[in-house]
Amino acid sequence: MIRVIIFSLLGFSLVACSHATKDLSLIDSKYVPVIELSGTGYERGLKHGQLLKSEIAEVYLKWKQSLRNSTKQDVDSLIDAFLSATDFEPAIKKWTPEILEEVRGIADGSGQKFKDVYAFQLVDEFWVYLDYLTNSGTDHCSCIGVSSSKNHPAYVAQNMDLESYMNGYQVLLHIHGSGKYPEQFILTCAGLIVTTGMNENGIGVNPNTLMELQSSTDGLPVAYVIRGILSQEKSEEVVPFIYSVKHASGQNYVIGIRDSVYDFEASANQIVRFYTKTEQTGIVYHTNHALINHDVKAWYLNYHKAVLAGETRDWNSEVRFSTLQKRLGRPVNEVSSEEIKSALRSKDDEKNPICHSYKEGDNVFTFSSVIYTLTGKCSVQVTKGSPDQSEYQEHFFTN
Fold first, then answer.
1. Letter string b/e over residues 4-27, b meaning 16 or more CB atoms within 10 A of that residue's CB
2. By Cβ atoms counted within 10 A, which residue in 47, 312, 349, 364 is the most buried?
3. Residue in 240, 328, 248 with CA at minimum distance from that of residue 286
4. Alpha-helical regions (H) of 160-284
5. Can you list the positions of beta strands (E) in 246-307?
6. How far lies 262's CA from each of 118, 294, 301, in Å?
7. DSSP code of 353?
């Protein structure tokens, strides 16, 4: 049995779900707060900015300090140089203009400079820019997709691994649908438009970085690709959208569309659908190395060749991929939501775990674990932090 408890916290509605055996209090930091948003893109962003003004100010300061520590550069000058070296706005205005207005709303509501709010949305693109400067890619995220079967609905799931300064700033945006704009649940950080999400039409998307793939300085950034997918009203519009846009960053997208799951490795110059060895079972999984898209940056060519030759099996992303392969390489009807949770909590390899618990001094941690149920009674399950240290909260759509 699930019960819903509603509080007023910091001027916004916080909605959390817990099992009836466990009471929830306002100060229980294990639960992700939910903010209710509606209206135009600008109106949604304005409310986001106003309600989380102090949290946004805090996390932006920590973001800049993290950049300062890692690059040893003046951060404002670094951001200016990054924005001068890229031109994403035309693609954003073409494909997701309402989401750009949402970013403007966050800036106005929070009192932050638009330049900073705009740059903060470009998580992967900033990593790409720093990679061009230093050739130092990083590993993040493990994704799973399971098609529906006679035993269960379809699921897409992920451990969203992000930089540690975001710890404690997890929020779940509940965007109310209007007209052709679908109802959505979006897991994110205060001041950020998305990390992953699902809409009422049974469309869910989980991304993970493929740093070795070619990028574009004028493509559509990852956050806007995700929000563009989630804005689709019809399931048949999702795959054409993925193929139509020019991608700013090398990225893998595990996408659930009602009963089916898809995996696409996307780069600036090509999009390739990826199948696991167990493709006939309707299960996909992915980590942070490209396996079928060979549109690779020059300084990653040797690494990519080593991946394809099976010579990198003890590297982080490859170890995590192997863990998912061992745990999920079975017929689809045998993979339950509990099996998915077990995989997402796993630490089969101590140095390269699927689940990265937060530790002081670590650069990366599992920001949240999500499981989206795409058919039947559609729902979104999220944890605050790693799933070994936090229970999954389940949220249901209005319609």
1. eeeeeeeebebbbbbeeeeebeee
2. 47
3. 328
4. 222-230, 238-244
5. 251-257, 260-266, 271-273, 283-286
6. 30, 19, 26
7. -
pLDDT > 70: what percent of the chain?
90
Task: Look at strands 34-37 and 170-175 and give their pairing.
Answer: parallel
Q: Nearest-CA neighbor of 36 among 200, 171, 222, 145? A: 171
Picking from 60-74, 128-142, 160-174, 180-194, which range would have the lowest pLDDT averaged per residue?
128-142
What are the two backbone dihedrals, phi and then psi, of residue 141, each rounded to the nearest 5 degrees?
A: 75, 140
Instruction: Read off the pTM.
Output: 0.92
CB 101 within 8 A of CB 226: no
φ, ψ (nearest 5 deg) of residue 59 = -70, -30
* Each residue's pLDDT tens digit, 18-43: 332 233 333 346 799 999 999 999 99
Q: Is 310 left (phi over 0), alpha (psi -120 to 50) or beta?
A: left
**CA 169, 232, 141, 244: dihedral to nearest 10 degrees?**
-130
Q: Is the pLDDT of residue 81 over 60?
A: yes
To the nearest 10 degrees (0 to 180), the angle between helices 41-51 and 53-71 is: 80
What is the token pair recorded at 267?
């780069």
